[in-house]
């Protein structure tokens, strides 16, 4: 990799390097390498704490995140920790093929196969197998999928799980099965469709596809999770309309609809996704649920929004590319913890309670993590409403945040049957071309073509208009110009169609940069938001503990730095 001058703007692969620090260093070396689950950064001293999510859920999320972050960044630090995570993950399986929570010496958590954990487990095994082709991983995954199918209660047209936990020997309540009392179908069945579908695509596992078919049918036709108008069922039995599990289920259904070419399923997702957006801010803050946790944003929910929006955009609803880009530029990356000057911790382990809690070097160990529960304007949520302050970090959100970076990064540039599309105006390198983004400083994108492209198109933000969009194409010392004022330059509403591009060509696209103000609503709260293009540059009222957005430095000319982009001939696609 040769360093050159590139715009010093948002680079998602750099953010992946940062998150690797947290993924690796939250491992508890005094407790078998088990990662801490949560952290409270507002306390003095701050502390990390174990939880009953430590096992299949946390290990699954982190193994998946390590695969994705290493693929984006090329960084190999912490391989010994990663190996410990992987061996731990495999050790949680029992002979029945399910992943079980373990005993903790300081608590009374009971060993069980939690159904939310199983989703993280098959997610990790799929990414792990995609990256390595390790046969022992596939054997574990095949056995796991077979178990997920075996324990499902099977009706004529739908399958489901009648409880949140499976115990060795069977479901705890036969009465629940007889009465079809399936708890939270979105959390325990709907979200499972996403990794199961990918596992089928990678391996051809028929059990995985069958689970996808019957779980999807159950969610859409029988569950009651989503109301007829697309809204979330907010009854207590449905977890008060919990956003992460609902939008995660929409992500799964969208992928299944795209895979099966089921337009009705895509439309089902779109209706509910559009409703969900009315509860979120344009920059990506989401509620936790519709009642008790309404003020607590999980990075997990935002990443579900990102993934679902990408699949809808790939399905032809191209307007969602701009929705997702705002999420990537704003609340996802703003929620990544890089400045910890405000956190107070301990330089020794004198206050640690091994197996339960640690105050030791918390700030350094969580640097790069994503927010567990944030406010629209603050990393820490400490409002008078809802549950007040609970925790600031959760391992699930670290894993999800990494996946959000990956989903954005892997869809900046896409190729399909000779057509190369630039979907997000973010910098990255690829085998076809390099994208140099000067946003939000300047309305300018520079493309360096690395190999011949049959058809090239670039999405232009709707706020940039048409008439003043210009493209200057330089090759072998000659420059020719194209204008967005020409109607023939546009396809699929927002894409500038540039035709064929030659190796060695440099294409500079310029357009007016928008400056606007919006009023964003978040569960009864209002925020005055200043935008520069798709980036929030000021938010009022300002946060208190670790404010968001208002420390972004903006210049009229993009700063430059020496560096280069990561380019891969073979990429992972999720």
Strand content: 15-25%
Strand order of the largest sheet: 14-15-16-22-18-19
User: Treating each run of at least 4 consecutive H or I residues as one helix, how many helices?
Assistant: 15
Q: List segments where confidence is low: pLDDT < 50 over at least 5 consecutive residues.
A: none
Shape assignment: globular
Overall pLDDT metric: 96
Helix content: 25-40%
Q: From the alpha-carbon coordinates, what is the Rg to the nearest angstrom?
A: 23 Å
Largest sheet: 6 strands, antiparallel
Folded structure, characterized:
InterPro entries: 6-hairpin_glycosidase_sf. The protein is an alpha+beta fold. Among the domains are: 131 residues, no CATH class; 69 residues, no CATH class. 35% of the residues lie in helices and 18% in strands. It is built from 15 helices and 26 strands. It has a six-stranded antiparallel beta sheet, with no helix packed on it. β15 and β16 form a beta hairpin. α10 runs parallel beside α12. The longest helix is centred in the first third of the chain and has 18 residues. The protein is globular and about 75 Å long. The relative contact order is 0.13. The model has no long low-confidence stretch (mean pLDDT 96).
């Amino acid at each position: 990799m040769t360093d050159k001058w590139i715009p010093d703007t948002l680079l998602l692969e750099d953010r992946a390097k940062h998150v690797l620090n947290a993924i690796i260093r939250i491992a508890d070396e005094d407790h078998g390498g088990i990662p801490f689950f949560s952290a409270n950064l507002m306390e003095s001293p701050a502390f990390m704490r174990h939880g009953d999510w430590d096992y299949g859920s946390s290990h699954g999320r982190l193994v998946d995140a390590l695969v994705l972050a290493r693929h984006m960044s090329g960084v190999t630090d912490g391989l010994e920790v990663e190996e410990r995570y992987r061996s731990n993950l495999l050790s949680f399986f029992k002979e029945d093929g399910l992943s079980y929570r373990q005993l903790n010496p300081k608590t009374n958590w009971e060993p069980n196969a939690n159904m939310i954990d199983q989703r993280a487990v098959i997610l990790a095994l799929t990414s792990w197998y995609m990256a390595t082709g390790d046969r022992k991983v596939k054997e574990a995954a095949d056995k796991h999928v077979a178990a997920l199918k075996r324990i499902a209660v099977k009706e004529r047209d739908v399958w489901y799980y009648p409880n949140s936990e499976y115990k060795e020997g069977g479901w705890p309540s036969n009465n629940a099965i007889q009465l079809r009392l399936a708890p939270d179908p979105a959390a325990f069945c709907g979200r499972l469709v996403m990794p199961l579908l990918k596992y089928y695509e990678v391996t051809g596992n028929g059990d995985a596809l069958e689970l996808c078919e019957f779980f999807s049918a159950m969610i859409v036709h029988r569950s009651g999770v989503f109301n007829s108008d697309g809204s979330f069922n907010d009854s207590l039995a449905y977890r008060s309309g919990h956003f992460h599990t609902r939008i995660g289920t929409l992500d799964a259904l969208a992928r299944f609809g795209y895979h099966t070419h089921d337009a009705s399923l895509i439309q089902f997702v779109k209706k509910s996704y559009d409703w969900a957006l009315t509860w979120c801010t344009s920059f990506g803050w989401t509620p936790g649920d519709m009642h008790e946790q309404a003020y607590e944003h999980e990075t997990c929910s935002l990443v579900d929004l990102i993934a679902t929006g990408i699949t809808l955009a790939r399905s032809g609803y191209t307007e969602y590319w701009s929705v997702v880009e705002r999420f990537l530029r704003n609340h996802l990356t703003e929620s990544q913890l890089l400045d910890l000057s405000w956190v107070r911790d301990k330089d020794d382990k004198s206050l640690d309670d091994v197996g339960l809690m640690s105050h030791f070097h918390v700030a350094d160990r969580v640097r790069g993590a994503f927010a567990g529960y944030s406010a629209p304007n603050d990393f820490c949520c400490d409002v008078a409403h809802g549950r007040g302050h609970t925790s600031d970090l959760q391992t699930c959100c670290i894993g999800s945040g990494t996946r959000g970076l990956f989903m954005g990064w892997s869809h900046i540039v896409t190729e399909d049957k000779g057509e190369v599309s630039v979907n997000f105006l973010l910098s990255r390198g690829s085998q076809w071309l390099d994208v140099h983004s000067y946003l939000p400083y300047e309305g300018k994108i520079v493309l360096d073509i690395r190999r011949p492209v049959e058809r090239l198109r670039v999405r232009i933000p709707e706020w940039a208009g048409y008439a003043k969009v210009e493209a200057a194409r330089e090759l072998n010392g000659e420059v020719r110009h194209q204008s967005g004022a020409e109607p023939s330059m546009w396809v699929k509403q927002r894409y500038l169609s540039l035709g064929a591009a030659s190796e060695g060509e440099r294409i500079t696209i310029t357009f007016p940069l928008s400056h606007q103000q919006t009023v964003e609503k978040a569960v009864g709260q209002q925020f005055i938001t200043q935008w520069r293009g798709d980036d929030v540059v000021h938010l009022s009222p300002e946060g208190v503990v670790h404010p968001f957005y208002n420390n972004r430095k903006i210049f009229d000319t993009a700063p430059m730095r020496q560096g280069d982009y990561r380019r891969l001939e073979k990429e992972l696609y999720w």
